[in-house]
Design goal:
The complex is a heterodimer of chains A (271) and B (315). With 271 residues, chain A is mostly helical. Chain A is 73% helix and 0% strand. Chain A has one domain: Orthogonal Bundle (MetI-like fold), CATH 1.10.3720.10. In chain A, helix 4 (65-96) runs parallel beside helix 7 (134-158). In chain B, helix 5 runs parallel beside helix 9, helix 9 crosses helix 11 (220-248) and helix 11 runs antiparallel to helix 14 (285-314). Chain B has 315 residues and is mainly alpha-helical. Classes of the chains: A mainly alpha (271), B mainly alpha (315). At the A-B interface, helix 1, helix 4, helix 5, helix 6 and helix 7 of A face helix 2, helix 3, helix 5, helix 6 and helix 7 of B.
Amino acid sequence: MRPRGPYKVFRVVALVVVVLSLTAPLLWMIAASFKTNVDIYDTGKALAFSPTLDNYATVLQQANYVQFIGNSLWVALAATVASLILGVPAAYSMSRFNMRKSALVVLMARVIPGVSLLVPWYYVFSNLKMVGGFGVLILSHMFVSLPLIVYIMMGYFDGLPEELEEAALVDGLTHIGAFRRITLPLSVPGVATAGILSFIFSWNNFMFALVLSDAHTKTLPVAIFDFVGYASIDWGGLMAAATVVTLPIMVIALFVQKYVVSGLTAGATKG
Amino acid sequence: MSTVTTPTRAAGGVGVMPDTPGWARWANAHRKWLFAAPAMAFVAVLIVFPLAWTGYLSLTDAEGSVRAESEFVGFRNYLDVLSDTDRFWPAVGRTATFTLAALLFEVVLGMAIALLLWRPFKGEKWVRVAILMPLVATPVAVGMMWRLIFDPNIGLANQVLGWIGIGPQPWLAGQHTALPTTIFIDVWQWTPMVVLILLAGLTSLSDEPQEAALIDGASTWQRFRHVTLPLLMPTVLVAILLRGIDALKTFDILYATKGRGGGSFHEVETLNVYAYGLSFDYNEYGVSSTVLILFFLIIIGSMWALTARRKEAQR
């Protein structure tokens, strides 16, 4: 059933409109990051401007963004790896032993408003003098990563036939051996999907770092606010900072598009 | 074979060899909980316990410093919050408006775009890339991006309106236009999520019902209304559920565009923004916990209603 006639024309026009409305704002942000503030304020120079790298120099040198990029990378990677170590075996158990109630407890984390956890965390961790350290940040980001990983991996393990493991048992592997040597290697695409999504969500997370980080440990989404002054905004610097935060993640998503899509839609089409 | 497997079975079933050391035997026998326990413990310590504490704090007058003494006050906070028509109920209203409006636009637009993308076409790959971009972009950065575009003086939005002869709008800066503008930003960023979910649903539908309807002479609209939509309904409800939960909890773009307290007139102060402000701007931990518990009940209630509706649709 391929579309024909006038619908075909309508479809092309509609698709162009969709693509433009989704990408134009992002391109506008990137363009503004190469403009001087004078050019940003001059609406006549929307497209005809002479590009400058000054904003990026401000962001990377004066605003100390190299460190914040490192913080974001470290927190997102550590939270993702730790969550994979905890989450993948748990998802396996929950899938194979049909532990739906336990799974529901882990998935509750997707529903709970983050603020309701931040208050008790802040209570406990500030008494332990841990607020501002990387440890708390990573723990708090695991709260985002772990449920996501368990959710994606449970669906993945549900789809792996149990017969493969049974065959391995007959061949003399232990249960754990079968998980390690048969199931895990077969689950690499699932683990990749879960890991990539966990990294993206942790990198983009704002609220936890807003409360739990300090001037040295803050992540990029928090550091963006350095460019929003009380009275005025350094628009060029702000757009360069926003681009530095979001462009890497968009480029990664471009290359691993298939995984991102399958992770985002995991479990959406089954009962 | 049987001479080997018989003692093995006696020792603990398939998958445990006679030479397996004791601890490994134990580990294999208890693998169900050995695998699940660390994650469950993490969740218990970091989620269940804090949630219980929030419940306790909501019954106290905790405020000021986290080290200050607090007193048990029973349900006084709940009475105060529920009779607060100044901040609490307007925040409930904004949360409902934001969530329902964003969901409505996202589902209708998402369905339209998913249908456009359904059948294969040239350049499909690039359209899919474009759809993915807003979705993975950092919400705070997205907020800042729209803040520039919607700036009343230098923003692109008013410039474009100027070309077609419409006067400048205050957008985020206006007391009554701020909330609709943030809804627009949410729709821009998250409609692609609905598109991806619905597209996955559409692709999994079989062609036969469509073809049968076509042979029966059904129009395009009739086929959508009476064949595609009913079959896709469970997926639509999943999309509504996932997006709805996140829309209720929206924080990043509201904080990025309007700052603390949802702006100077609390124009975009939803329950989440209100609770955040109570906790970390005013250190009213007791009252904020009360708001959070009520907010949590609202989320659970809406989820429960949707899941019930979904079960009905599947029947």
